[in-house]
Design brief:
Elements lengths: L2 H45 L11 H61 L11 H4 L5 H14 L59 H17 L3 E4 L10 H12 L8 E4 L5 H7 L5 E4 L6 H6 L2 E5 H18 L1
Parallel strand pairs: 1-4, 2-3, 2-4
Helix pairs in contact: 1-2, 4-5, 6-7
């Protein structure tokens, strides 16, 4: 190959390389212009202005300006849609967050209640029950007789009806004695007339039946013995700690002693009348009936599921029962 041809080829190559560099610079300038146009359109859309058209400074800019305007328009249209989607997602997220907060608060409170209830423990005292009171033979007919007498004594006995002498009116003889052909009558308030008096009606009276003390004591021993044989008689040290009444704590202690949920069983609590702390704590408790050891009777023992003594009340009852038994002998 001749030197002239070599020079021609190298010149052509140099021209091609220069053309490629020029095209690359033009493309880079076009990309930069498009990016600037898109950024300006976005800022104007955010400010609420219409996007301004980019002036064509050269032949290469003329081709890229429409593309930049299209991109800016798409961005301006897409931005409100994104805002609406974000607002919708926030409105949906707020109720979920609120419910989650409520659930968290409720779950945070629940363990506190459980832990508070768990603090109350059983205060039952293991004590030997006297055999003469809590291990006697069960006399069912005697128990029935004493319970019937107890219920009869609880009746008010205020029922009453009026006789012919108590009904208002009827003081005048309705008609003459003879000559009418009718039966002789002396008053329209006689029992055979409507509005008249009642014959042999109920009158106010007491239904109480006298029951000997020995029968009452024997029936009470029978009832307590029946409950004790089934493990339903218990003795506790106390229900409340401190000097102020606490119904919730007393009820939780009673539930721990009986092993039953609070309010599900009927419990007879025997406590001294002087023990005001126990009385004030349990007098309004559901399913709890308080009674003084001197008032303990067969009926209350039988209608309750369990009998729970406080230690002072148990000592008082045993001493009194032993004294009565000695007097009967």
């Amino acid at each position: 190959m001749s030197p002239a041809s070599k020079g021609d080829n190298s010149g052509a190559q140099e021209q091609d390389a220069a053309a490629e560099v020029t095209d690359g610079a033009a493309d880079a300038g076009a990309d930069e212009a498009a990016a600037e146009a898109e950024q300006a359109a976005t800022e104007q859309a955010a400010a609420g202005q219409a996007p301004a058209k980019v002036a064509a400074g050269s032949a290469g800019d003329t081709d890229t300006a429409p593309a930049a305007e299209d991109t800016a328009a798409e961005g301006a249209e897409a931005k409100p849609a994104r805002r609406r989607a974000a607002a919708a997602s926030e409105s949906e997220a707020k109720p979920a967050a609120r419910s989650a907060g409520r659930t968290a608060r409720s779950s945070a409170k629940a363990p506190a209640k459980k832990s508070k209830a768990a603090q109350a423990s059983s205060t039952e005292i293991k004590i030997d029950l006297p055999a003469d009171i809590f291990d006697a033979s069960v006399n069912v007919p005697l128990i029935h007789q004493v319970v019937v007498a107890h219920e009869a004594a609880a009746r008010q006995g205020t029922h009453a009806t009026k006789t012919r002498g108590e009904v208002r009116g009827g003081g005048r003889k309705p008609y003459r004695q003879k000559g009418t052909g009718r039966a002789r009558q002396g008053s329209v308030r006689a029992p055979q007339f409507t509005g008249g008096g009642i014959v042999h009606g109920p009158v106010s009276r007491s239904h109480a039946v006298r029951t000997p003390k020995k029968m009452k004591a024997a029936a009470l021993r029978s009832a307590l013995s029946d409950r004790a044989r089934h493990g339903l008689v218990q003795v506790v040290d106390g229900f409340v700690d401190g000097d102020s009444p606490k119904t919730g704590h007393a009820v939780s202690v009673l539930a721990a002693v009986t092993g039953l949920p609070a309010g599900t069983a009927s419990v007879l609590v025997v406590a001294d009348r002087s023990d005001q702390l126990t009385w004030k704590s349990l007098r309004n408790a559901r399913g709890v009936h308080l009674i003084d050891p001197g008032q303990l009777n067969t009926y209350d023992v039988l209608v309750r599921d369990r009998v729970v003594f406080t230690k002072p009340a148990f000592d008082t009852f045993v001493a009194r029962a032993g004294k009565q038994e000695d007097e009967q002998r």
